[in-house]
Specification:
The complex is a heterodimer of chains A (about 220) and B (about 300).
Chain A lengths: L1 H47 L4 H16 L2 H15 L8 H26 L3 H9 L4 H31 L11 H12 L2 H32 L2
Helix pairs in contact in A: 1-4, 1-6, 1-7, 1-8, 2-4, 3-4, 4-6, 5-6, 6-8, 7-8
Chain B lengths: L1 H20 L11 H9 L8 E6 L8 E2 L9 E2 L1 H12 L3 E6 L2 H9 L5 E7 L2 H6 L1 E2 L12 E6 L16 E5 L3 H10 L5 E6 L2 H9 L5 E5 H9 L5 E7 L9 E5 L4 H16 L3 H11 L20
Parallel strand pairs in B: 1-4, 1-5, 8-9, 8-10
Antiparallel strand pairs in B: 2-3, 5-12, 6-12, 7-10, 7-11
The chains are: A mainly alpha (about 220), B alpha/beta (about 300).
Chain lengths: ~220, ~300
């Protein structure tokens, strides 16, 4: 019973920290990461299909390194090493470096999603379009890509949900998302389990609502197919 | 699926109810009165550039968050007062960068922060890798190092031998780790339980995964005070060498100029006995003591010693 009263006490006293600040920053970071990731990820997917060998190699190395190392480690490097390369970053709050790392991380995954989405479109589609006299570019833009998008969107939605959870690692630098709220409140109250349960419920609510919205979106896409 | 939706609605409405119930938010202005007075006394915005301080604000009463405050003022505690004092003495602008405890050390090492002030104790290894400032004295937070336990064992364990056969936990990379290893290393005491942070360790203690937890006395008081009626001091205190008793600041090895300035400021603070007043104010703030107990009036003025 003390557990529930403790949870109620924490919520009455710190609801702003959890509901406004925590959820706000979590959504902000996820949006930055996913929209940045979608933009740069598309560019990287294009680069992967480029004829320049060097460009392909560079992008492949980035993707492999990003996918092969933990996000937490990438955050440490981003926060402590990026400012050495770009001095302007050192006077800015950590959320800037953290956002850059999350965008890079997300781009690597999104570029793979897009690549596999394009490759999943039957090669016959491209061949047919080309034999009808369409140029490579027109065939890509008006025949292959519209079909690829349908493969890509659901996976992109999953990536969004993954990113929502990954932002929790940014709490190492107290950027303000939900896990930071947990650190702040339990640092003062020493009520660890209670804070964890609150944060857990909020994360679940966020990702559950997101996945519902994505389902609706997918259904719409199917209806228009 | 319908059921799931109902459950979700229930959860969300619960959140809303709690949030609404909280709208009449009562921030305890009184608790911070003495602290705010000290903060207001510091001169801010010096001319000699910025002093960037790395700090891990999850360690009441040394540094923690006040949810009622916003922005940079939300980080409060003894080390924040010290940081403000140092910035004033060095005539620099203070920037506090919050991050986890081990990230603080990385920040100083990489030059990302000028100085790490986060309740650090002196250890041999730290001395090898950082320039270490002279000591500062955070009340009895570090001078007394104790062991806490569940209420039922209160006062029963008083000497090192009493702990034979039990599990003693501690926070990794902390002074307590050094003390636990020195004290129990040769005895048949299980000291394999290491935790990343104190909060997790307290949960382990409550869940009986460990029997005892080594803490700095001040943190122990915070833990016991914060609604955890189930926890108490064992009655055992570590024998603490003088070199461990106080806190130090970590500075980058190459920055001897800053080290000298910081040491001069620390010497002045010690001479004028600033520390005990600061520490008392932070203890009140963290809910460990009341204003009255420590001789403050309701507006935060010190009225008796």
């Amino acid at each position: 019973m003390t557990f529930i009263t403790n949870v109620a006490y924490i919520m009455t006293k710190y609801w702003r920290t959890f509901l406004l600040q925590g959820i706000g920053y979590t959504l902000l970071l996820s949006l930055i990461a996913v929209s940045g990731g979608a933009f740069f990820g598309s560019l990287m997917a294009l680069a992967k299909r480029s004829r320049l060998k060097l460009l392909r190699a560079v992008v492949n190395i980035i993707v492999e390194v990003v996918r092969g190392t933990p996000v937490l480690l990438q955050l440490y490097i981003g926060v402590f090493v990026f400012p050495m390369i770009v001095p302007a970053l050192s006077s800015l709050p950590y959320i800037y470096s953290v956002s850059i790392v999350l965008i890079i991380n997300s781009s690597a995954y999104v570029s793979e999603i897009i690549r596999s989405g394009i490759e999943a479109v039957d090669a016959g589609q491209m061949e047919a379009a080309r034999s009808l006299g369409l140029t490579q570019r027109t065939a890509m833009v008006s025949i292959v890509l519209p079909q690829a998008v349908k493969n890509i969107l659901p996976a992109l939605g999953n990536e969004f949900i993954m990113v929502v959870k990954e932002t929790s690692l940014a709490s190492t630098f107290f950027v303000g998302e939900l896990m930071t709220s947990y650190l702040k409140v339990k640092g003062y109250t020493y009520l660890t389990m209670e804070c964890l349960v609150i944060v857990g419920v909020l994360y679940f609510a966020l990702t559950y609502i997101l996945s519902k919205l994505l389902k609706v979106l997918e259904r719409r896409m199917k209806a228009h197919a | 699926m319908k059921k799931m939706e109902k459950l979700l609605c229930l959860l969300l409405s619960l959140c809303m109810v709690l949030a609404l119930a909280a709208c009449g938010d009562s921030s305890d202005a009184k608790l911070s009165a003495a602290y705010d007075k000290y903060m207001a006394g510091f001169t801010k915005g010096g001319a000699n550039g910025t002093l960037t301080v790395a700090m891990s604000p999850d360690f009441a009463p040394m540094e923690f968050y006040d949810a009622a405050k916003t922005g940079d003022d939300a980080i409060v505690g003894f080390d924040v007062l010290l940081a403000n004092y140092l910035a004033q003495e060095l005539d620099m602008q203070l920037v506090i960068k919050p991050m986890s405890f081990d990230a603080c050390q990385a920040a100083v090492q990489t030059g990302n922060a000028d100085i790490g002030i986060s309740g650090f104790s002196w250890t041999y290894e730290r001395g090898q890798n950082y320039a270490i400032s002279d000591f500062y004295v955070a009340g009895d937070n570090e001078t007394e190092q104790s062991i806490i336990c569940l209420k039922e064992n209160e006062g029963k364990f008083t000497k090192a031998e009493d702990f034979v056969g039990y599990k003693v936990g501690y926070q990794g990379a902390s002074l307590q780790q050094v003390l636990v290893e020195e004290t129990f290393g040769d005895l048949d005491v299980d000291i394999d339980s290491v935790y990343v942070d104190l909060g997790t360790a307290v949960e382990a203690l409550k869940a009986k995964q460990i029997d005892f937890l080594a803490v700095a006395h001040g943190n122990g008081e915070s833990i016991i005070a914060s609604a955890n009626d189930s926890i108490a001091f064992t009655g055992f205190d570590f024998e603490v060498d003088d070199m461990y008793k106080n806190n130090v600041c970590l500075i980058n090895k190459n920055n001897t100029e800053l080290l000298e300035k910081v040491n001069a400021a620390l010497a002045k603070a010690l001479e004028n006995d600033y520390y005990s007043g600061w520490y008392d104010a932070c203890k009140v703030y963290a809910g460990v003591s009341t204003l009255d107990e420590l001789g403050f009036d309701d507006d935060g003025n010190k009225i008796k010693e």
